[in-house]
């Protein structure tokens, strides 16, 4: 049974004539008659009564007509969805997310939804190594990452740089500065996530402290944002570092956010090698749209 046979059946049923159906389908009448006869043989029931001068649909044909229309509608829907997937405007886009994206992620998703309303996005948060492995293995289509080296087997497409912010007690004298350097805060204990949890930020901060000629002084570990900032506000003087985009997420009194002068990590999109898929290209466009004029980027 072919879709063409079903289309011919619906045309004859609606036109109540083989000649008119052939004209509507832009084929010759014998082709329509032949396909209808084949369909009747395959179904094992007569679809039209040809015993009179006029074609009349049989009771079996009447019963099958709505079902065949539904089949044709489903086939057309499959074609539309497949075309949408091929263009990136439909389907599912699986994205690995990174810590500290903050409002930037919301902006990207808003722009992506505006560009491709039917494209469904699934977000997956995981440590860096797991995100990269998921992209390599095909479980993710792309992942936001911040890396210091390379990512074997993947392409890293630069998106934007992200300033760092020092968070310290609001009552500390250093909070009186609008901008701080690593050298100014290196003497205080720093709260960092374990290296295996956030290797990029851990290595970035410890390397910057070491560059001042000091050994890093580690305070209590960074556990989660809410608890760490609450402890930092209430306890002895310590500090931590956040990506600037993450600072508005958890307003905590008695702490100060101060821009850190120094390295600004690059955010990349990790993707499989080769040309990006249409959906990933839409994601890249959405990311580019979030970069303000004058904001540092890969270029």
UniProtKB/TrEMBL annotation:
Going by the entry's taxonomy, the superkingdom of the source organism is recorded as Bacteria
Please tell me whether the keyword Cytoplasm is annotated for this protein. Answer: no
Tell me the ranges covered by the HTH lysR-type domain, including all copies.
1-58
Q: Does the keyword Flavoprotein apply?
A: no
Q: PANTHER family, per this entry?
A: HCA OPERON TRANSCRIPTIONAL ACTIVATOR HCAR, TRANSCRIPTIONAL DUAL REGULATOR HCAR-RELATED
What CDD domains does this protein map onto?
PBP2_LTTR_aromatics_like (cd08414)
UniProt cross-references to InterPro entries, sorted A to Z: LysR_HTH_N, LysR_subst-bd, WH-like_DNA-bd_sf, WH_DNA-bd_sf
A Gene Ontology cellular component where this protein is annotated is: protein-DNA complex
**What is this protein identified as?**
LysR family transcriptional regulator
- Name the UniProt key words of this record, in alphabetical order: DNA-binding, Transcription, Transcription regulation
Could you say which protein family the record assigns here? Belongs to the LysR transcriptional regulatory family.
């Amino acid at each position: 049974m072919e879709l063409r046979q079903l289309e011919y059946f619906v045309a004859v049923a609606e036109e109540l004539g083989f000649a008119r159906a052939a004209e509507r389908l832009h084929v010759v009448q014998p082709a329509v008659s032949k396909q209808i006869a084949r369909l009747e043989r395959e179904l094992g029931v007569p679809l039209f009564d040809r015993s009179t001068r006029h074609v009349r649909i049989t009771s079996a044909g009447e019963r099958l007509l709505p079902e065949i229309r539904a089949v044709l509608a489903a086939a057309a829907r499959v074609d539309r969805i497949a075309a949408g997937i091929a263009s990136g405007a439909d389907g599912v886009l699986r994205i690995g997310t990174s810590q500290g994206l903050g409002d930037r992620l919301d902006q990207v998703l808003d722009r992506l939804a505006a560009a491709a309303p039917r494209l469904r996005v699934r977000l997956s948060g995981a440590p860096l190594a797991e995100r990269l492995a998921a992209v390599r293995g095909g479980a993710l289509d792309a992942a936001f990452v911040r890396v210091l080296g390379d990512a074997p087997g993947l392409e890293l497409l630069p998106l934007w740089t992200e300033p760092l912010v020092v968070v310290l007690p609001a009552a500390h004298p250093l909070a009186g500065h609008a901008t701080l350097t690593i050298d100014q805060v290196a003497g205080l204990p720093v709260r960092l996530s374990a290296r295996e949890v956030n290797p990029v930020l851990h290595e970035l901060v410890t390397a910057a402290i070491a560059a001042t000629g000091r050994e890093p002084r580690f305070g209590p570990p960074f556990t989660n944002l809410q608890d760490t900032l609450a402890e930092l506000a209430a306890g002895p003087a310590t500090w931590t570092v956040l990506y600037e985009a993450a600072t508005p997420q958890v307003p905590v009194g008695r702490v100060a956010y101060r821009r850190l002068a120094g390295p600004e990590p690059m955010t990349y999109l990790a993707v499989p090698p080769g040309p990006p898929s249409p959906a990933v290209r839409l994601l890249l466009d959405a990311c580019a749209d979030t970069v303000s004029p004058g904001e540092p980027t890969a270029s």
